[in-house]
Amino acid sequence: MSFSRVNSSSATLTKNRTEDSITSASGMCVTCVDGCIGMCEIGKSAYRGHEVIYPQPFGVITTAAEKKYPVDYSHFNIMGTAAGAHGIEMDSDKAIFPAVDLEVHIGNDGGLKFRYPWIISGIGSTNIAKNNWEGLAIGSAMSGTGLTIGENVVGMDPGAVFKDGRIVDTVDLKRRVKLYKDYQHGGYGAIIVQANVEDGRLKVQEYAIEKLGVECVELKWGQGAKDIGGEVKIKDLKKAQMLHERGYIVLPDPTDRNVIKAFQMGAFKEFERHSRVGMVTEESFAATIDGLRKAGAKYIFLKTGAYRPADLARAISFSSKYKLDLLTVDAAGGGTGMSPWRMMNEWGVPPVELHSLVYQYAKRLSDNNRHLPAIAINGGFSFEDQIFKGLAMGAPFVKMVGMARAPIAAAMVGKTIGLSIAAQQVPVYIERFGNTKDEIFVTASSLRQELGSEVFDKLPTGALGLYTYYERLAQGLRQLMAGSRKFALEYLSRNDLAALTREAAEISNIQYIMDIDKSEVDNILC
What we know:
Elements: H1 41-48, E1 76-78, E2 104-106, E3 112-114, E4 118-123, H2 127-130, H3 133-143, E5 146-149, E6 161-163, E7 166-169, H4 172-183, E8 190-195, H5 197-202, H6 204-212, E9 216-220, E10 231-234, H7 237-245, E11 249-251, H8 257-265, E12 271-274, H9 282-295, E13 299-304, H10 309-321, E14 326-330, H11 341-346, H12 351-367, E15 374-378, H13 384-393, E16 398-403, H14 405-422, H15 428-431, H16 437-440, H17 444-451, H18 453-458, H19 461-483, E17 497-499, H20 502-508, H21 518-525
Parallel strand pairs: 4-5, 4-16, 5-8, 8-9, 9-13, 13-14, 14-15, 15-16
Antiparallel strand pairs: 1-17, 2-3, 6-7, 10-12, 11-12
Helix pairs in contact: 3-4, 3-19, 10-12, 13-19, 14-19
């Protein structure tokens, strides 16, 4: 059985000629014909080379792996019960699903509070992030959830001003922070500024703390989509040269005379901008944490990717020793930008395996009375059942799940609906609900009442899309939790899940469905 499609994908705009007859090992057509124009990935690579490493078309898509892992969260079911209630009085008139409390408080001082147990954990310098930031920032702030400004935003900003290799003014970062803060209310949520190697050199986080009033910063070791630095594609020669001057790796060299000529002739249409990989040592990590605290950071997070188990252990250990406020662990297969497609599919530890290791390692530290930060896990979460499973799998250590592609999708759809309303061309599929945002978005009436018509009328529909999607997730999660009789997140446990296969049970140490409740059953039936 093959878990991967290795020679064709809609992500790379490739396909096999003999789609129903493929060699599983190579992914090639069983009969490769002399004279084929090269629709498959091998064929397209014969004339576009390295361009085919990345998903296409860049800038208007988000991407995630299509590899089918042997075990995933669908191999677990949520266990409900007909008896009892945790976190609320055992009264049928009180133990109703709207009463489920989804608030999360994290940070060493408990000072960060979120209305819901999820966070957007890193939207950086890609066009897909920049073009949808209005919806993502405002929607997140109105929902009282966290939003992370990802890597390289400052370095990519043409309006950024540097002095002695340090950032002193920005356009894009200012805008991103302000859009969130303008709609933040009730003390809920947080805007987080992330930094990779280049951001660290430019002192981006110190600038955000000192000049923009940012309280939360996050160090980045990696993500689930790739184990190298971030990449984007650049269609403009002058911008490619600007990034080269700022110290980024830009391929091909935009200052080379022959490269410039080839670009102007149309031999290629995009430059690649790459970030450097980090070199983690405890000494440098400790120094960075100390420097950020001296700069005034109130909360410090770490995000790591789907690296080998030793790196996960290192991340949890460092986060414990240096008393970080949140550790985010991103499992293999994710992606929001233009991670290399084969890398996205074929490297790293998949979600169930990685999240099981997170629990094991966190429990070891907890059993030794070591400090543990709150933990968030990423790995393709998009709906309430998956969120429940992720939180229960890591309970009591995992407090939130991280998402990216799903919230972006909600914001993009909301934005597209707004454009269709403005053009008076609402698609038939949507027109059945109405032709205005008050009619189409089910949360519109309550938001108009809460915010007032003047504020509501100015809301971008991308923000409405994200807010409404979050409202659905919240109600769905409350219903599932009420069915398990857990009326606050603190009561979720691994016993709320059952593994549907022996393999899933062995990997996760979640009980197999036919073994669960055995002792209780014996007591009932004795």
